[in-house]
Amino acid sequence: MTKDLANGKKATKAEVEERVTIVFTLTVRGATRDEILRHAAKEWRLAPRTVDVYIARATDRLKALAVVVREEELGRARAQLHDLYGKNMKVQDYKGALQVRKDLSELLGLYAPRTTKLDASLATSPADPKPILSDSELAAALETILGAAAREEKGHAS
Question: Do the beta carbons of residue 44 and residue 4 sit within 8 Å?
Fold first, then answer.
C-alpha cells in the first residue's frame, strides 16, 4: 500500500488498483510521465516515487496485454478480411476481393520474400553516361561478391 499525502492514510488495495488503472488509461491515451505525475499530484497528492510504481505496474499490464492481444488481433484481422472478401464477392467487386485476398495473404506471410531489382542507372556516372564498369568487369565483381558470400556462409555452417 502507498501513503496518501492528502490525508496521511495508506491507500487500500482497491484504491491502488483503481489508480493503476487510471495511469494505464492515461498511458494508453498518450500521456507522458510528467503529465501523469501532475495528475497524480493534483488528484491523489502522491510523491513521484509512488507514481513511478503505478506507472511501472501499468506498463507491466501493457506488456502482458501485448502478448495476448497479438493473437487476438491476428484472429480478428483474419475474420474481418474473410468477411470483407465474401462481401466483395457477393456484389461482384472482384478488384476489391483481390485486394482483400492480397492483404490476407500478406498478413499470413504466404508470399515469397520480395526481391529488389537493381537500377541500371546506378551503373553509370551522372557526368558520364557510359557505364562505370564494363559488362565483363561487372560480372567479375559480382562473381567475387557471390564467392565471398558463399565462403562466409560455409564458414558459419561449420
Answer: yes
Please answer whether residues 44 and 59 qualify as being in contact, where contact means their C-beta atoms are separated by less than 8 angstroms.
Answer: no
Task: Give the chain's mean pLDDT.
Answer: 84
pLDDT in tens, 77-91: 999 999 999 999 999
Q: How many other CB atoms are found less than 10 A from the CB of residue 19?
A: 24
